[in-house]
Design a protein that fits this description.
- The protein is 64% helix and 3% strand.
- Strands 1-2-4-3 form a 4-stranded mixed β-sheet, with helices on both faces.
- The chain is mainly alpha-helical and 520 residues long.
Length: 520
């Protein structure tokens, strides 16, 4: 879904109002031609269509890992001056996950960057993944997306977003013919014939991205290693699973440039660090939720040599294989097999040299196993060594364990209070709000649950849905038993959302909002 969407987003030609957008050549400022605020709003419109999609994945551990690579890149780009005050304040600088086994990553207007799980699964180090994220980040910082937006007086941003929504529906149905019909039938048909950035833009993104990943502390060899592995995959095994190679075509020139940038430094293939091996294995399991795929992954470590006799680096391969086998077995509810694979992974980590982050990931996996078995006490015990951290991953895992804890409501209440504090600091975290809603329902707090469900919709950009849910909460608050303090919170929040919707409608209809107008 997202690969098709991303390519079309980069090729589609919206306009700002009715004026044609005149985009500059490389090196010129684009701020006067396409306002960054308009680009961000366009990106938000697209994200409102993407976030509800089932393939938009909220996995705390994987998202945390990608963010641990993405955040240093953004900070490095800021230090280098690639991110100015205007874009820093207006763009989202947000990365998100897409449940798709194809090797792909893409940038959207307004600073949103999507990462397919297939890309994470095929990389062997954080440096390789950083090279792709740095490249995509540079497409954003250099305003390449704005430069690819071609003015067309017949289309508005709203019409373009509607076209993209139609493509999402066609892609979700699995109908290639439907998707093709949507492309051909839209006014973007001519633009869709050119899905890739120009070669100059690709070279610039390579150059800027290389400097950014260096500044962020990642190994320069990561970009060259990624290029060479993707080129080999393209020639030997690509059967439609490498859309990144079509939207970002590799050339001998680009690979040669990467070698030149390394200078006299010897090429050393970045090592497969344990934590990356674990996260790549996790992506491999989650990217394809079919039972037959999970059954194959249960046997993934069958052909991997024993760690004690393996060549340097092979231990990471075995660690990832056993992690994948354990997680796949949990998904298949084969708990005995999951326990055996998890113990083998723990032993492998000891043999190759345990590191805190890798041991932490195995603790979370043990908690996931306990949750699936309905043994909350064992899950909380597995998380006990992590008690000092206040990460989102820990809060979410504790909340999920509390949902299966049969010992009483105390753990659920504590988890709810902790998550309530978290969302007060992170109000746009839809996943955390959704988990909180489940906890309040379990604790028989209907108004708090309704408010949390409303906040889920608001965080996803669905103001209409959020307002409907909060209005429902106000109706429920009329009963004598209702929590009037919570009712007052809902009323205040509803007023704020109604005001926000009026402001957005005023931007969409500058000449006056028609009666009954709704947000798209």
């Amino acid at each position: 879904m997202a690969g098709l969407l991303a390519a079309l987003v980069l090729a589609t030609g919206p306009t700002v109002g009715r004026a044609q957008v005149n985009l500059p050549t490389l090196g010129d400022s684009v701020s006067a031609d396409l306002d960054v605020g308009a680009e961000r709003r366009f990106g938000e419109q697209i994200m409102r269509q993407i976030r509800p999609d089932p393939d938009y994945l909220d996995d705390s551990l994987l998202l945390e890992y990608v963010q641990s690579i993405w955040s240093p890149l953004v900070q490095a780009a800021t230090r280098l001056g690639n991110i100015g005050d205007e874009t820093q304040d207006h763009f989202a600088w947000e990365t998100f996950l897409v449940r798709d086994k194809s090797v792909n990553a893409f940038a959207l207007p307004g600073g949103f960057v999507g990462v397919h799980l297939g890309l994470i699964a095929m990389t062997v180090s954080a440096d390789e993944l950083a090279s792709v994220l740095g490249h995509e980040l540079s497409h954003v910082t250099q305003r390449h997306i704005a430069r690819r937006i071609i003015g067309d007086s017949r289309n508005s941003l709203l019409a373009t977003a509607g076209m993209i929504a139609g493509l999402i529906i066609a892609a979700r149905s699995g109908s290639v013919d439907g998707a093709n019909a949507a492309i051909v039938g839209s006014q973007a048909a001519a633009a869709a014939a050119s899905l890739a950035f120009s070669r100059d833009m690709e070279r610039e993104a390579d150059r800027v991205g290389f400097n950014v990943m260096n500044q962020a502390g990642f190994a320069p060899a990561g970009m060259l290693s990624m290029f060479e592995r993707m080129e080999q995959a393209y020639h030997l095994m690509d059967s439609g699973n490498y859309p990144y190679l079509r939207s970002h075509p590799l050339t001998s020139e680009r690979i040669g440039d990467a070698r030149t940038r390394m200078g006299t430094e010897a090429f050393v293939r970045p090592p497969g660090l344990a934590v990356h091996a674990l996260m790549a294995a996790r992506a491999k399991v989650l990217m394809d939720p079919r039972a037959e795929t999970w059954a194959q992954l249960q046997n993934l470590d069958a052909g991997v040599r024993d760690t004690s006799t393996a060549a340097p680096g092979r231990g990471f391969e075995q660690l990832g294989a056993r992690y994948a086998g354990a997680l796949a077995s949990i998904k298949m509810r084969d708990f005995g097999r999951a326990e055996n694979a998890l113990r083998s992974a723990e032993l492998t980590l000891q043999l190759i040299g345990s590191e805190p982050q890798s041991a932490r990931m195995l603790s979370y996996l043990r908690a996931e196993l306990a949750q699936a078995k309905g043994q909350a006490a064992d899950g909380f015990a597995a998380l006990k060594p992590l008690a000092a951290e206040r990460s989102r991953a820990l809060l979410m895992q504790r909340a999920q364990l509390a949902m299966v804890d049969s010992r009483g409501a105390d753990t659920a209440r504590q988890a709810a209070d902790d998550l309530q504090t978290f969302v007060s600091l992170n109000p746009k975290d839809a996943g955390a709000w959704a988990q909180l809603a489940q906890l309040w329902e379990r604790l028989d707090q209907p108004l708090r649950a309704v408010r949390a469900h409303g906040e889920v919709r608001a965080a996803m950009g669905d103001l209409n849905g959020a307002i409907d849910r909060l209005r429902s909460g106000l109706r429920q608050s009329r009963s004598r038993e209702a929590d009037q303090i919570e009712a007052a919170v809902i009323d205040s929040r509803l007023r704020a959302l109604l005001y926000e919707r009026r402001q957005l409608l005023a931007e969409l209809y500058p000449r006056g909002v028609p009666p009954g107008a709704e947000l798209p």
